[in-house]
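Hello,

Our lab assistant flagged a job as stuck in the queue for most of the afternoon. It eventually completed. Since we weren't sure the result was trustworthy after the delay, we are filing this so someone can double-check. Below is the sequence as submitted and the structure that was eventually returned. Let us know if re-running is recommended.
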Amino acid sequence: MSLQSEIDRAVNFCKYPAIVLSLLAMEPLLKTYRRFWEIREQLSFDRSACFIGGVVLMILVWVFAGVRQNALSTLEHELTHVVFAWLTFHRVKGLEVNDDGSGRMVYVGKGNWLIALAPYFFPLAATGMLFFSVAYEYATKMPLPEWVLIGSGAAVGYNLCSFWQQLHPEQTDFAAAGWVTTFCFLPAANLFMFGMILSYATGGGRGFFGFFKILSYYAKHLLD
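-- returned structure --
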């Protein structure tokens, strides 16, 4: 049996533990978000204002401009499939994106549920901006400029709007991953991913590690 098949078996075997973990994680994640709201005054006002401004601006543009699924959002969607196909050692055979917003990615092998659900819990644009922000601060030893914070917020707003448009009952990726997996896994996975991005944008490294510290605290006291 090939390495690719072994990895698919391992990932698919972890599906139900991932479901249970996601359901258990919801309460600690929600409490972590609430705690961040309670300590918002300790976060950088300038960073938070620029980031949130970028989020709001992108959502307003998306809504009032009547943006619909297009080639750009489809490209990002399919590229996220590609990333997780590569991460699970699948060879990508082709990528197709059409002007009407349709598209597909073809890879070798049966695949797994993570590849199917990747675009719905891994915000590629926002995560890319997170990596860029960390690299920028590390390289320059300077606080993030306003344009990076606004860009990070805009990327989050873009991903939120794109996710919202892609969530519909006819979505074949959900059927491929399984409806139970989809409904149980995605809420916690999104709260976790966007929590990391939000905490770094508003609090830098201190906020980022604070997110994990608070989350681990509530996770430890889950059964108390």
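-- support follow-up --
The delay was a queue issue, not a problem with the job. The result is valid. The chain has nine helices and two strands. The two ends are 44 Å apart (CA to CA).
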